[in-house]
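Run folding on both entries below.
>entry_1
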Amino acid sequence: MNIRSQISMVFHLDKCIGCHTCSIACKNVWTDRKGAEYMWWNNVETKPGTGYPTKWEDQDIYKGGWEKNGDTVSLRGAGKLRGLKNIFHNPHMPVLEDYYEPWTYKYSDLFTAPEGDDQPTARPVSLVTGENIDVKAGPNWDDDLGGSPDHARHDVNFKDLTAAEQESLFQLERMTMFYLPRICNHCLNPACVASCPSGAIYKRGEDGIVLINQQRCRAWRMCVTACPYKKSYYNWNTGKSEKCILCYPRLESGQAPACMHSCVGRIRYLGVMLYDADRIHEVASAPESELVDAQLGIYLDPFDEDVIAAAKANGIADSTIRAAQLSPVYKFVKQWGIALPLHPEFRTLPNLFYVPPMLPAMASVDADGVYDSHTESLWAGIDRSRLPMQYLASLFTAGDTERVKHVLKKLLAVKVSRRKTTVGDLSDEEVNATLEAARTNVKEVDEIFRLTSLATFEERFVIPPAHREESIEMLEDTGDVKGNTGFGFRIRPARGI
């Protein structure tokens, strides 16, 4: 076993209120610069919807991620041959209009306009060209428009739904939406790293964070195409690619990343996972129906004595192993099995997992126009969720509806069990039946409730101490003896090194 440590994350979608505080925190810290105005390393999308950039999930357009070729995988739109063919003209790369053209307003017109009978206005001006523009799109342009014909109907995840299911989603009594926050997944099998002709993108050995060396980057932008989540961006001012760095300067000082620290809904969890790097190729090449199980199987039990011994033999510090044992991510992903990867069919093995939302139950309208939202119990069954299981399966399980149902049954069991404990108006028979259907027990659902609803800051963010000796080894491996890691940060070697 080649045991390595990976900083991983869980986002609990039932708790996201769509306030975008995380996005603004990230914007103020990292992308409030010339050339980065359009970048949102953290963004929150409304689902159903097309997202940012538009239709980023449609790899028929963007050719991101990996595709299975026999017993191995290859990049869809990058690589040596494809990269060489498209190095000067890449038809699969998103253009500025797929994001939006950033703008400001010419406020000086409000103060210099001559006296007149009409109210002066501040015209929008492009931050790229400086010319007047007509604003046609912007950040979160489709925010809260989960039922709109212009945005929601073009959601790529509708492709596996029947025409009747798609149309029913836009009936008033069934209309729904939820929020999907996204950052870089810092994947185990990152397509951006494999696609870079300059070797500028690398994955840190000590914590798995994926970074772009700004000195080595030559702006070929293959990483923009290769990343299926479209979380690598081109800075038109500096001529370099940039991406989320998981606030590693904060992590190294024991602080949570800015987006996670500022999260109002407290939906975010961060911790360490131990994994077997020797299995990455095997897992990434698994049949699509087995991808989720294969990925979850690559993460190892931090309490297993053999795993601990192998981790120590591979240079992983005791403090990192201890952090893995306390990791909230391990509990959500492995112990409870209620957090799932986003689009595992991209085969990048992402390290950001989502707890699917428990969406409202759908009502019905009969032939006489009578609206009915009656259910036999306090909570309607998951089969009456307003969004079809196939939609959630398209997002989180590569089409496996049974796995999504199991997660939702367990989340429902938490609600039912807690209702019985706090209010006591549910029968033992109903509670036991719900627990049995979810293949869980009172002890487990209480633990889930505790970490979901009452967790302290230290329980949600278990950050291992930074080890300078690993940073020095990383510098030696990358050949960057000056310690340049991008965005003005440098790792300062100890004296005598």
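>entry_2
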Amino acid sequence: MNLVFRIVFAILFGLLGLLAGRWLSLILHWPVGAGSPSAFARFVGLPILGTLVGVAASPALLRAFERLVKTIEDAIAKRNPAEALSGAIGLIVGLVLAFLVRDIFNTFVLLPHFGPAISFVLYALITLFFGYVGVRVGLRQRLNWWAKGTMQSGEVAAKLLDTSVIIDGRILEIVQAGFLDGRLLVPKFVLKELQAIADSADPVKRSRGRRGLEILNKLREASKGLEITDHDTPERDVDGKLVTLGRQLGAQVLTNDYNLNRVARVQGVSVLNINELANALKPVVLPGEEMSVNIIKDGKEQNQGVAYLDDGTMIVVENGRRSIGEEVDVLVTSVLQTAAGRMIFAKLKR
């Protein structure tokens, strides 16, 4: 196939060079006589030279053409089918509109000297304008009714990752375990916020930002569906952009931010909260159960001691202060579920 393209490009640009040389031979005003060397150079040499230049330039022009095609192919491959279809339909509509208004520019042909050239340039510009606007509008609208239809027919919703869930890092283990289906989308405004944190003067923030970028690189390796998307919205804050983008794309927002979780759900956007998943996976503890814990510090109330399970669940032990640093047997008295997690209250076993 590559050889065929080389031959076709060589023929096409050789013909263009021939025509260019012929055109130059006609417009140049050389005072030459019939049969003179100057006449031969003008009417034969220039067309031949133009042909050779066109053929010689064809490989470079073919490489430029291949790069352009690859760029377009990569851009289309990053879009899901709904977006690609929407952009194509938008382009067709834009080109049809440009064709319908072409008669407006016919009047410029009547201008002296450069009328036809002005008419052609203006029509080319308006065609580019309508085509570009059509593609942008098509991608923004994404044929929402069609996209929703595909979602209802079984397509897995994409997941929008926010900054907090990337820095947290647990998303990497969840992806590696195969518990997340569908595309993982990281908007460029989230990536920009992550880079700003990584460049912060605060060493703690800088460390968190760099950890987030490292997690993102590992996610790209672990998940073939991870995409950096340039979708954006008019909102100024990142949380507002994520909620609006989730609503536009029909995507789920993946986060561990409690406030973002509430705001998104109020606006009807589906949310996957990593903290809620972690709480759901914690072992169930019921009042009356016995366990052995290591009390490590005193609690807020008098004589209370505090211990932790392996998953980080806090256990508040009544009268456990005197046993700090010891491993003791306790009896669970109650379990409190809060927005921040689960707390277990217990007393020393007699």
